[in-house]
UniProtKB/TrEMBL annotation:
Taxonomic classification: Bacteria, Pseudomonadati, Gemmatimonadota, Gemmatimonadia, Gemmatimonadales
Binding site for ATP: 276
Annotated residues for binding of Zn(2+): 30, 216, 241, 245
Cofactors demanded by this protein: Zn(2+)
Gene label: cysS
Record bears the keyword Zinc: yes
Protein name: Cysteine--tRNA ligase
Length: 468
């Protein structure tokens, strides 16, 4: 196996990576805030982390992944208050939806999904350590703040000088009294809306709730130890979230928090970052409604390196659908043939080496994908030539299985009933669009059908369809 290398945000370099014990990668990945459906930009990050954990296993390591679920924060409380609900009434349905969406995209289960509300004692213990160490202070209203001036290494992840941390950044937007506008909240004294929505707990400083950053430090250290191998998330979390995690964790323990930090870039829509506040959000529910499989979105995401921005354009997913269909056709052919040629085995060995070299070089998914498709082209040529070498065929099957164990792009076999139901629904939508003279919508419905290999024919007796 080639050496595994990753870009470490902390050092700004691609470096050799291996778990400290040589056996199990202990990794913490920031999960969703469950007040709404996670959007496709969020899932780009989660897919990069899924690829990472699969690549680690391919390298021969076990994985212990913790992904938190933020189920108490300002947005959740506002939503609960507006609907006269307990915060759990807001978060539980979206937690279920997150897991449903995750499974649709074939994202493997993390080993644990701890919730913030279930780890309040651990968070209070961490705050007490910070107060005792003199790096946190209690404000007049009972809120507790981290004093960034007391932590010499503040800014080492984001490479921001403390003088550059402006009041008004997310780190300083809390409406609580503090000594320095740059300090961030560890514990927030309870407000009436917190009490009304079940978002307040007893603490040594009075009733209150945790700050945004506290949960990740407390849960990471509980399940992975005070120092662990890897912390990952989206690039937007570098500052302030991950910077503040480092500060509060290392100020409490005196030890390095995470040995390596990995961050995935943004998903763009028409050149703008996908974000709920911008209003350009798409989600997995919409993929399902449009008949776009999880394998199609996986392929689209893996077409770009995780540290490069990725733009979701009009035809992006259709190109990925065609690619996934090609993979599926090859998988079926490889399963059905009985033998190959010696050159087929050579192509498999060559493709496997290029694939592993790419994947282990800072998770270069585009080059790994290219290796897969080169193999498909070469293998199809050899299968066309016939051959009687059964060992060569098994070598090809093993190489393809190895590559797909990480990429997971072979589409599920669609039953005739599934396809028929979807086609009839799309035909009904097309008919309704034509009746209201919305020809753009009608053409879009036809394009969806064509993309899935369905041919439709309009005639006097209505519209008929068949597989292409």
């Amino acid at each position: 196996m080639p050496e595994f290398r990753l870009y470490n945000t902390l050092t700004r370099r691609v470096e050799p990576f291996a778990p400290v014990d040589g056996q199990t990668v202990r990794m913490y990945t920031c999960g969703p805030t469950v007040y709404n459906a996670a959007h496709l930009g969020n899932f780009r990050t989660f897919l990069f982390e899924d690829l990472l954990r699969r690549a680690f296993r391919l390298a021969g390591w076990q994985v212990e992944q913790i992904m938190n679920l933020t189920d108490v924060d300002d947005k959740i409380i506002r939503k609960a208050q507006a609907n006269s609900q307990h915060i759990l009434e807001v978060t539980e349905p979206y937690t279920e939806l997150f897991h449903k969406d995750r499974r649709y995209l074939r994202i493997e289960d993390a080993e644990r999904y701890p919730k913030a509300t279930e780890h309040i004692p651990e968070m209070i213990d961490l705050v007490e350590r910070l107060v005792a160490n003199g790096v946190a202070y209690v404000a007049e209203d009972g809120s507790v703040y981290f004093a960034i001036d007391k932590f010499a290494d503040y800014g080492k992840l984001s490479q921001l000088d403390k003088r550059e941390v402006k009041s008004g950044a997310r780190v300083a937007q809390d409406e609580y009294a503090k000594e320095n506008a740059q300090d961030f909240a560890l514990w927030k004294s309870a407000k009436p809306e917190d009490e009304a929505t079940g978002a307040a707990w007893d603490s040594p400083w009075g009733r209150g709730r945790p700050g945004w950053h506290l949960e990740c430090s407390a849960m990471a250290m509980k399940y992975l130890g005070e120092t662990f191998d890897l912390h990952a998330g989206g690039i937007d979390l570098i500052f302030p979230h991950h910077e503040d995690e480092i500060a509060q964790s290392e100020a409490a323990t005196g030890k390095q928090f995470a040995r390596c930090w990995c961050h995935g870039e943004f998903l763009l829509t028409d050149g703008a970052k996908m974000a709920k506040r911008v209003g350009n959000v798409a989600n997995v529910v919409e993929l399902r409604e449009q008949g776009i499989s999880g394998t199609v979105y996986r392929h689209f995401v893996f077409n770009a390196h995780y540290r490069k921005q990725l733009n979701l354009g009009d035809d992006s997913l259709e190109q990925s659908r065609a690619a996934v269909n090609r993979i599926g056709a090859f998988a079926r052919r490889l399963a059905e043939v009985s033998a190959g040629t010696p050159a087929l085995a050579e192509a498999a060995t060559r493709a496997e080496k290029v694939f592993l070299d790419a994947l282990f070089d800072d998770l270069n998914a585009p080059e790994a994908l290219a290796a897969l498709f080169t193999f498909i082209t070469d293998a199809n040529r050899e299968l066309d030539a016939g051959g009687t070498d059964q060992a060569a065929l098994e070598r090809a099957r093993a190489a393809f299985k190895l590559m797909d164990s990480v990429l997971d792009l072979v589409p599920e076999q669609e039953t005739d009933g599934d396809l028929a139901a979807w086609v009839e629904e799309r035909l009904a939508a097309r008919k309704a669009a034509r009746e209201r003279r919305d020809f753009a919508a009608a053409d879009a419905a036809r394009a969806e059908l064509t993309a899935r290999g369905v041919i439709i024919e309009d005639g006097p007796g209505g519209t008929r369809w068949r597989r292409g």
